[in-house]
Automatic annotation (TrEMBL):
ABC transporter domain ranges (all copies): 2-251
Keyword Isomerase attributed: no
UniProt family annotation: Belongs to the ABC transporter superfamily.
Annotated GO MF terms: ATP binding; ATP hydrolysis activity
Domain of life from the UniProt record: Bacteria
Keyword Lipid biosynthesis: no
Protein name: ABC transporter ATP-binding protein
Keyword annotations: ATP-binding, Nucleotide-binding, Transport
Native organism: Streptomyces mesophilus
UniProt-listed SUPFAM superfamilies: P-loop containing nucleoside triphosphate hydrolases (SSF52540)
Alphabetical list of SMART domains matching this protein: AAA (SM00382)
Amino acid sequence: MLEVRNLRKEFGDFVAVDDVTFSLPQRGSLAIVGESGSGKTTTARMIAGLETASGGHILVEGEERGPGHKRQRQRQRLRSGERRARGRQIQMVFQDPYSSLDRRQRVGAAVAEAVALHQRLPADRLRARVAELLDMVGLDDRQAAALPKALSGGQRQRAAIARALAAEPQILILDEAVAALDVSIQAQILRLLADIRARTGTALLFITHDLGAVRHISDDMLVMQAGKIVEHGPVATVLADPQHPYTRRLIASVPKPGWIPRRRMDPAAAARLP
Ligand SMILES: Nc1ncnc2c1ncn2[C@@H]1O[C@H](COP(=O)(O)OP(=O)(O)OP(=O)(O)O)[C@@H](O)[C@H]1O
């Protein structure tokens, strides 16, 4: 479904992404983890076509893509249908759902707009499809009629996911999209994504720090550091036998069952410290 070969991004002299190669099959799920600033988001943005690659190849179903690709850019200018097809291929959900939602647009209208952009439907079927998408992510009529600012963070994130799913994308990229949600909502969204992957064949690309989520939802994971892939393999293998120090640190930092948070120091004891 997706093949990334020797992908590179330079910002001036700085190399943010360096020789990144991986593939993602249909119905596959891959997590990219890595230290802050290691190039995860930049990689995702290039795949989504939001950033131009400095080098390398991005192939979707064997076809080269990306705004940096000249022939594609010409074709894009010619046919708006092409843009629709691109949206159908890849959608991205960000950590801050405000970046995928218009603050002045009610949630139901935002989802309807996304459906209409990708599918020509009579009004009644459009309404039914919007209701189906909102229902899928667990938003009710009151929330559908609300502006993004009147929703909770979790509800806003679910609205952004419903909007992305409206395009029936072949690849859904989630950039820390569930990181800020509380655990029960997070579990609900991960279940929802697993269900969508099984039902529609949509491939998932997660960018996350959360190994718990990685374990639940991804088949494979890759670890980035300073723009490079330092570890890549099936999640179970990488987690059971991490080769890279960053992966080991990340695994060591996940609380284990029986873990007790360290108590805050008694202020009187703190006062006695030198
Ligand atoms: N537009 C830009 N101009 C210059 N440098 C940039 C730009 N975008 C990103 N960078 C740099 O590229 C590097 C990789 O950034 P990126 O956002 O991909 O990291 P990340 O792994 O997603 O980090 P985080 O987990 O903190 O989001 C960083 O050092 C960042 O400062």
